[in-house]
Amino acid sequence: xxxxxxxxxxxxxxxxxxxxxxxxxxxxxxxxxxxxxxxxxxxxxxxxxxxxxxxxxxxxxxxxxxxxxxxxxxxxxxxxxxxxxxxxxxxxxxxxxxxxxxxxxxxxxxxxxxxxxxxxxxxxxxxxxxxxxxxxxxxxxxxxxxxxxxxxxxxxxxxxxxxxxxxxxxxxxxxxxxxxxxxxxxxxxxxxxxxxxxxxxxxxxxxxxxxxxxxxxxxxxxxxxxxxxxxxxxxxxxxxxxxxxxxxxxxxxxxxxxxxxxxxxxxxxxxxxxxxxxxxxxxxxxxxxxxxxxxxxxxxxxxxxxxxxxxxxxxxxxxxxxxxxxxxxxxxxxxxxxxxxxxxxxxxxxxxxxxxxxxxxxxxxxxxxxxxxxxxxxxxxxxxxxxxxxxxxxxxxxxxxxxxxxxxxxxxxxxxxxxxxxxxxxxxxxxxxxxxxxxxxxxxxxxxxxxxxxxxxxxxxxxxxxxxxxxxxxxxxxxxxxxxxxxxxxxxxxxxxxxxxxxxxxxxxxxxxxxxxxxxxxxxxxxxxxxxxxxxxxxxxxxxxxxxxxxxxxxxxxxxxxxxxxxxxxxxxxxxxxxxxxxxxxxx
Length: 588
Fold this sequence. Notes:
alpha+beta; five-stranded mixed β-barrel
């Protein structure tokens, strides 16, 4: 028999009854039932119930065992007594009667429990992550993550993509987030950067004639922590294709992402045919460029019903042509208490309030706005929004470019409060036609709105003749249940168009050549039209595991202060290391 085990802790079944077996694992739980000791023995594969009585020579040692001790158990497989089966365990019809126990590794007093999935302070969980990872739910999430990555990889290869690994040490880039810098010992005073994404390398692969590339790529960004991104590093399904239009990318990737979701959705419905929603329409209808389409609420422009009305606050606003009034329907929200609660919530978000109209029995509008604009306008609003008795509508007014984010938050809040969000489904959509540029109020200049390497719709002609703020890009995102899970674009592969695009954003040709010299040179020697995207592995896994915390699907994450509490990073280094790198510290 093998030194440590003949079977794993998830392997034994009725067919093994009567066999002498050997298992090794962790003592998950130890129970004393009137002289009989029950040990639930756990390993990576599952759990087996083991039992020992006072007549066994192993009983004395069994009494000394504690939670999370690692032991080897020899014994005989027998059927569990009638009425004690555990249908939730694959091994739930059998148990091992223990003949011998060997302690392989003792465990000290645990800083946190492994048995059960109760909440525990995050700082403790991250410091003792090796214990945290033994917990059933987290352990299963990590295994699900591996299976999802395997599925992505297999589907990409089946779709004709080839897997390549791009460099980790690269050059710093002026666009996007802050780089992690790595000092060079061989070239004093110079630095490598860890890649924020393999963007330039994957485009260079297309210049090199490889046609279809993908990788499960690690990406590094020295950003302030965000709720929807792990500090420091994350992974993405990165891909690029040659000789493609936007439609070709959609046709290639929609089946891959849909297939992954269907495989791991545990029977929850997944969108079959993804809608395509222009960026401007997404903001107008949903108040976000990553709409949660499980929420059925759609906002509408109701400005005409308030123009010249008795509600002077809105009527005066509408004298400025840039201002609008948007309505958010609230089906079932037509009570004074609910409307007042939403108004208080809006004030808590830093707004002056949230105007509303309620429709009572008989269809009559109620509330301050209804009283000011009169029954005809109130009825017209109700008809436009498709509302009925017992419903309400909430209103946001002003310059839409300033209030759309709050309107989106209000739509989400209403969907949650009125139970309008079907949590048991995955709603996927393409968001298209992003603006190429936006105006940076702080620096008083035009900036790239999204990826600077995207092809403008209309090409070089649009860059030379159009107002930059009206130019749309061949840029697209994938939204799922309120999260952006992928972003991509058709690339600007013409050198003169690339230079012009950067000039508009304030970068001269010299800067383009200095910062993106490799790609700029490659474009001079026969560049194919190409495009691609990157899907966030962490966010996709998070959604499919049914959690809203990225730390629940990552092996060794940092905390919100970008610290690895387990390994003690970031850490100080020795003066010798600094001297080798020709670096002197200038601490604040």
